[in-house]
Amino acid sequence: MMLDGYIRTTADQGDERAVQDVMSLYGIPLVTDATANTLVVGSKLLPGRVVTSLAWQGKTWQETHEIILFHAQDQAAPGRVVRRNLALLLEQAVQVPRGPWGILRGVRPGKIVRRLFDEGYAEADIAAIFEKEYLAAPEKAALLLEIALRQRDILPPETPRAVGVYVGIPFCPSRCLYCSFPSFVLPSSEKLALFMAALKKDIASAGQLLRKYRLQMETLYFGGGTPTSLPAKELEQLLAWAQEHLGKPQLGEWTVEAGRPDSLNAAKIAVLKGFPISRLSLNPQSMQEKTLQRIGRKHSVQDIIEMFASLRQNGFNNINMDIILGLPGETPADVRHTLQEIAKLSPESLTVHTLALKRGSALAEKLLLQEDVPLPDAAAVAEMIEASRHGARAMGMAPYYLYRQKQMAGQFENIGYAKAGSECAYNIRVIEERQSILGIGPHATSKIVEPDGYRLHNCYHAKQVDCYIRDIDRYIANREDAFRRFAGRE
Length: 490
Description:
Blueprint: E1 5-8, H1 16-25, E2 38-46, E3 49-56, E4 59-66, H2 77-94, H3 110-118, H4 123-132, H5 138-154, E5 162-169, H6 189-212, E6 216-224, H7 232-245, E7 253-259, H8 266-273, E8 279-282, H9 289-294, H10 301-313, E9 319-325, H11 332-345, E10 349-354, H12 362-368, H13 378-394, E11 398-403, E12 414-418, H14 425-432, E13 436-440, E14 445-450, E15 455-460, H15 465-470, H16 472-487
Parallel strand pairs: 1-2, 5-6, 5-13, 6-7, 7-8, 8-9, 9-10
Antiparallel strand pairs: 2-3, 3-4, 10-12, 11-12, 14-15
């Protein structure tokens, strides 16, 4: 059903943001002039309940719902009720089908599960809350519960002094069609030397910060970009500085995003072998030649297979692989083929992303210019997700973390699957946002978590490499100040 848009009645005193959220979810724009095909939406906040109304083509629908607080600080409850009521009214009045996640728009729905467990809710009650209050599909509620219970078995409880450390390297062999990250082709040797000098200072000061505030590094994660885009000499320097200044992670987890096979060679693999790296990622995104070419990859499927074999031969026994569902021109059959090819390699974990159309990506620009980009529809993506679920479980993997993004194909999710004992602790911690993260490198974010209520305080490094190099002392000082004010408390 195509609608001209919606008008918000000015006499009502409901939650404007909640209405915008739902209409955005269904792609219904806000308009100023009413037509026969325009919805009129209103909501009133009354003591203990919300009344939401919708008028369309001379008919009016209304939904009243009690405001339920899940915890004492649940300030989002009135808005949640508006969203729920409005979604139900859209189904009744206009037959707009709800998405698999209902009214949930947040990146980290698992945080709600953790909070409800903390409040003493039972599993069945939590499932009911997601289905009735958030209108999520039963299988999504079950998935969140499965992941939350597995995470409790995987990791020790959070402690105030434990942190994760992230080191971001903003270089890639080339920029992929869907990528919106601030990644760059490797610069000249002169600029690379300046970057490495700034990075060394950044790592050394981070090590001092860990010791000064008696913080315990639980995990160490090298991401980007693609860290292995660095030449072998600089890659060895990076890892050596981390080992010298940051020390050994408590959980023994060193993760390096190798990403693409064209970022690795024999010399770089020899460098990686010289450090206690416990986990590597090799991310094909697809095992279809046509797709690799379309998205701007400079390698072949055979390159992926050969590089995976080389990593195995060199003793790397915990390898993750990423795939993306919903890539241009792909079909469910293509995804099933990709999963079959990955199963032959037998990685320890698999991260299944759903394509998100991000501003700043070449793909979003093509769509904005109305270029012909053959994107799969929501039904096809749903079939791809089901294929990936079966494929991961056939490889002996179970889901262990989940997050969502804006502008995702079909309003779905990203899921990390892993064999028992091969899960990435850093991924769990950073998604659940109950542990502070110390960020190093361009575009890195330090997240300081207050244990009482898990409030976040963020501190950002520059996205652009030139700004990072020029102002590194200021960014280091800002990070030091943030940790002093929050993590430094006794």
